[in-house]
Amino acid sequence: MFHRRSSVCLRTFVLFLLAISQSVFGQDSPTRVTESGTIMGSTTTVERVVIERYLGVPYAMPPLGNLRFLKPQAVRAWEGVKYANDYGDSCMQFPLPENVPTSEDCLYLNVFVPRVTLEEEDEKMAVMVYIHGGRFNSDTAASYNGEWLAAVGGVIVVTMNYRLSVFGFLSTGDRTAPGNYGLMDQQAAIQWVKDNIDNFGGDANRITLFGESAGGASVSMQMLSPQNTGLFQRAICQSGVAMSPGMINPDPLEATRALCEYLNCRTQDPVDMVTVLRRVSANELAQAAARFTGNFTERIWTPVIDGDFLPDDPVRLLERGSVPDRQLLLGFNEDEGAYLMNEGLPGYYIRDKATYNYYMNASLFHIFPTNTEAVVEAVALEYGSWNETSNVDALQQTFTTMYGDFAYIASTMQMANLYRQLNMATFVYQFTHARRSTLPAWAGAAHADELYYLFPTVRGNNPDLMTDDEMQLVESMMTYWSNFAKTGNPNLPYNPVLPTNWPRYTSSQRFIDLTIRMSDNSAGQYIRPRRTFFWTKMMPALDSQSCSPETTDDQDNTNTNPWLEETVLLGLRRNDLIQLGVVGGIAILLILVFFITCITCCKVLSLNRLMRYDDSKIGLSSYA
Ligand SMILES: *[C@@H]1O[C@H](CO)[C@@H](O)[C@H](O)[C@H]1NC(C)=O
Ligand SMILES: *[C@@H]1O[C@H](CO)[C@@H](O)[C@H](O)[C@H]1NC(C)=O
Ligand SMILES: *[C@@H]1O[C@H](CO)[C@@H](O)[C@H](O)[C@H]1NC(C)=O
Hints:
Blueprint: H1 2-24, E1 31-34, E2 37-40, E3 42-46, E4 49-58, E5 81-83, E6 108-114, E7 125-131, H2 147-153, E8 156-160, H3 165-169, H4 181-196, E9 202-212, H5 214-224, E10 234-238, H6 252-262, H7 270-279, H8 282-290, H9 314-320, E11 327-333, H10 353-364, H11 372-382, H12 392-421, E12 426-431, H13 468-487, E13 510-514, E14 523-525, H14 529-544, H15 549-553, H16 562-574, H17 577-612
Parallel strand pairs: 2-5, 7-8, 7-9, 9-10, 10-11, 11-12, 12-13
Antiparallel strand pairs: 1-2, 3-4, 4-6, 6-8, 13-14
This protein binds 2-acetamido-2-deoxy-beta-D-glucopyranose (NAG) (3 copies).
GO molecular function, one term: hydrolase activity
Keywords: Hydrolase, Membrane, Signal, Transmembrane, Transmembrane helix
Signal peptide: 1-26
């Protein structure tokens, strides 16, 4: 009793001091009340706008000890005032990020509130919540300073950390450790915004999620989760969606077993494995998990279809239309794969046909495991390097272009097409401004290049060194993005800085090119329909073909090619004129590729069979 009263006294005293300090120091140490307690931040001025910053605000209990591999728990309320002047630690990752300490105690968010005069006095500001990328295995909210976007856009910007790698995504594929804790962290942070942002002058009914790469995939997974109805209104996916290759691990138990074995668990039982893995020190676990992170599109510590947070395959969920109505803005960079040309990454090491073949297989094998070689050949044909044996530049270009289309672009357009078919508002962009860099001249805007124009200080970038044209692009993009957050339409409210009207993506499939010196000519129609078809329909079909004896024994199938039929049917059902045209050309091409594949693939088989069967039963038609 006494104890309690004294703490109330203390609290009153602190609030009293606070009131004094505020009147003394002006508004340099602004405070805001949240459901768990009061926080005190700081201010800064960007582009002549005063921004209140609240950094390192806890939104969930530290996921330590027995809370490891569990969904986030409600944060404990505090008395008095919590200082919110420093970013929270980054979530555990390995290798360690530069200059940002890591800790398992990392569930913190950051709020950037612009002091702007709103048109109507009682109007609340729209809120933009950023989810960072990094393959679900690296990076931190501290890399994304939201001050600029808050100042230019006149919106509240929130960034958050979420558990990464094994800490965020370990799964046994059952209820023991269902996985997706990192996604649930994001969800808890969004819920925090919903519950508290009113006290910051924000509109709890105008929350927009945005994210890049794995962050974009996260955003679309939050959209697809049935648990988030009413939690947010709009979404922006930059260069990554739920169905991008490698965003979901279909066999998490295998990875958990491999990790456990590496750490000498001596058990295969899910419950025991998780018990052991909870006791391993955070550092040791982070380092061990990094050995099983996977390369290219093989990703191990990623979201899973847990039947709960993520009930089903993303494409199926969208086809079924089982998603709440929200506005979606999404897009990609013209030459996503060009980032692989940087030193230390695969594109850089392609020096001849052998390294080309190696990296092609390594990139495609995990998504197309059955007929990888046929897929690699089809890529060579589609991307024009089929006749090249020694032209390194051509081989590098094929590899990086193919990787960008395959890993990011096709799936983004697949999502755009599925979403607009549900008649929900969709806006599509292609970002095309390539910065001066060390990349070859043919390289266009690479993965993550658009981030400079939303977070001008990202990756050590100095905004003072950006050209006037680039600063104009900063202003345009921030205005489109924040407009979308305010109204669900990037063009509204009208602002003379906007270079052109951004058409909605409908059956006429219009989009805009985001680049410097935009004009009305920056709007275009039909964006990569052929490559989208190639990667989302044709290659899956090609890979699903098998030359197993069971199939070839089936005489009923000898005169038809079910795979080709399916392809043509799909084309017709889609009812897109543009794709119909493509189907015809591609069908011919595919017959060729399939033909070659099956001859190669079944050569051994047919030789064996020739010795066992009548000649009459063995014809090429059996395999074509
Ligand atoms: C794949 O990653 C492992 C470590 O996770 C590494 O040892 C191996 O060299 C990588 N392979 C390729 C093809 O980069
Ligand atoms: C392709 O890559 C996979 C996985 O790294 C490997 O197991 C397989 O042997 C490779 N195939 C070829 C033909 O190099
Ligand atoms: C390969 O074919 C392309 C056209 O598809 C042509 O431009 C290129 O010069 C050819 N390269 C070689 C080595 O024949």
